[in-house]
Specification:
- By secondary structure, the protein is mainly alpha-helical.
- It has a domain of about 150 residues: Serine Threonine Protein Phosphatase 5, Tetratricopeptide repeat, CATH 1.25.40.
- The protein is built from 25 helices and no strands.
């Protein structure tokens, strides 16, 4: 059941999570914001996410936890940084000022500390503060969800899984938003290769909330990892009305990407392109469609210059943000594939400036290490220097997980390395390609795409 009986001050206090405000409206709108965040929903009954947050802060402009959730969503959900967003920087400063001047609880103080660390670029350090909160307050789902989001972006699936496992015994169906926990737990299980357990937990989430787009999305991951592509297509098509409901739209585009990947896996490339053209919206095109088309490129399919140019145009305003290595690699793939050499040069130069000027934080460390190797390798591939692409990236391939994302999302980089090795004119790289495909076959034995790759690498050796 979807939670819409929003909690006032007394209900929050009775639940062991008191809020430092006297405004029932503020706490109810906080709960409404939280419910939409946790459920990947836009609840029209309260005006949607943006209107809900506006109502919350209008009811109590000095509501510290209201500031916490707004700033957290701005940094993580919208991918903004106070480094270049003046309004966000002012909002973070105001949150810190209020926390220092108002009498608030220890839990609320820790929430402020975590968001300040997050906004300063110290994402992993923020997760440790959220985990501290959960030790004493295991039903604080804001700390839990923000930790999940951070672990996903940090490429830490074990922590993502275990964070949920630690708190589950403290929850039951009487606690609001409990119904989303099985879906969260399922994702951590899936990302750590416990696919059967993940499927059970995801199905429980769907049983509790049939319109849960998150639990549906986790099932898509399970089907992809197990090579159950036709089952995945059937499931998404038969549940289409549930996860494309207007209130579930924030995640729908991503689920369509999974649907397209099923078709790519099966070699049904026209169907994949049809989904790209008809379902991927501009708001998500910079990541989802880049992965979609890069998968197609890796399969030797002609995507079309016009599609790449459309994607690159949407990417262009984000070239100087550098919110993550994961994002910048996708932006770079789009610019390279669209043959926008000036944008490629701009992005590479901007990354170098960011690394020199910022000098601290989680992403800075990643850009200095695996990020540098990935971007150099992508550029080499784009310039036809396939041997260089392999030489640069291969030593770092087990570090790519550190850039975040899911196993399914990062698979594009595994395919990239295999294809670079196949195209390389260096004999040992072609032998490496065969080894990588054998490795892939052991991990995903029922993958038609892997079988097609195996045919390609064996043809090289036959010749």
């Amino acid at each position: 059941m979807i939670h819409t009986n929003y909690r006032g001050c007394k209900e929050w206090c009775d639940g062991g999570l008191p809020m430092s405000t006297t405004s029932d409206e503020a706490t109810k709108m906080f709960d409404a914001t939280l419910s939409q965040y946790v459920g990947f929903r836009d609840e029209t009954s309260v005006g949607g996410m943006a209107k809900t947050m506006e109502r919350m802060l209008s009811a109590d402009p000095e509501f510290v936890m209201g500031r916490v959730i707004v700033n957290g969503l701005t940094v993580v959900g919208m991918g903004k940084s106070p480094r270049w967003d003046k309004q966000l920087r002012q909002s973070i400063d105001e949150m810190v000022r209020l926390a220092e001047t108002r009498k608030i609880t220890k839990r609320e103080t820790k929430h402020v500390e975590a968001i300040k660390l997050l906004s300063d670029g110290y994402m992993y350090e923020a997760t440790q503060v959220w985990e501290d909160i959960l030790v004493d307050h295991p039903t604080d789902i804001l700390a839990l969800k923000q930790g999940q989001d951070a672990y996903y972006r940090l490429g830490k699936p074990v922590q993502m899984r275990d964070s949920i496992a630690r708190v589950l015994p403290h929850w039951d169906a009487s606690i609001p938003l409990y119904a989303y926990l099985p879906g969260f737990y399922a994702f951590g299980l899936c990302e750590t290769d416990h696919w059967n357990e993940a499927e059970k937990s995801a199905n429980k989430g769907i049983e509790l909330i049939p319109t849960s787009s998150w639990a549906t999305h986790v099932l898509a991951h399970v089907y992809e990892m197990q090579g159950r592509t036709q089952e995945g297509i059937s499931h998404l098509s038969t549940t289409l009305d549930n996860w494309t409901d207007h209130s579930s739209a924030p995640l729908a585009n991503h689920i369509f990407w999974h649907w397209a990947v099923f078709h790519i896996e099966r070699g049904e490339y026209t169907a994949a392109l049809d989904l790209f053209d008809s379902q991927v919206s501009e708001c998500t095109v910079r990541q989802i469609s880049v992965r979609d088309m890069a998968w197609l490129n890796s399969a030797g399919v002609t995507v079309g210059q016009e599609r790449w140019e459309d994607v690159a145009e949407v990417c262009r305003p984000r070239l100087d943000e550098h919110t993550s290595v994961f994002n910048d690699c996708h932006l770079l793939m789009a610019c390279l594939s669209a043959k926008k050499s000036s944008d490629v040069d701009h992005l590479i130069g901007s990354i170098k400036t960011y690394v020199m000027e910022v000098g601290t934080g989680t992403q800075h460390k990643l850009f200095e290490t695996v990020g540098k190797a990935m971007t150099r390798s992508l550029v080499a591939y784009g310039e036809g220097r396939y041997s260089d692409a392999v030489r640069i990236l291969n030593p770092h391939r087990y570090s790519i997980i550190d850039i975040g994302g899911s196993n399914a999302q990062r698979d594009v980089f595994k395919l990239f390395l295999i294809n670079a090795a196949i195209r390389s004119n260096t004999p040992e790289h072609r032998r490496l390609a065969r080894s990588l495909v054998i490795e892939r076959k052991a991990y995903k034995p029922d993958s038609p795409m892997t079988d097609r790759l195996m045919e390609r690498v064996m043809a090289l050796h036959d010749n």
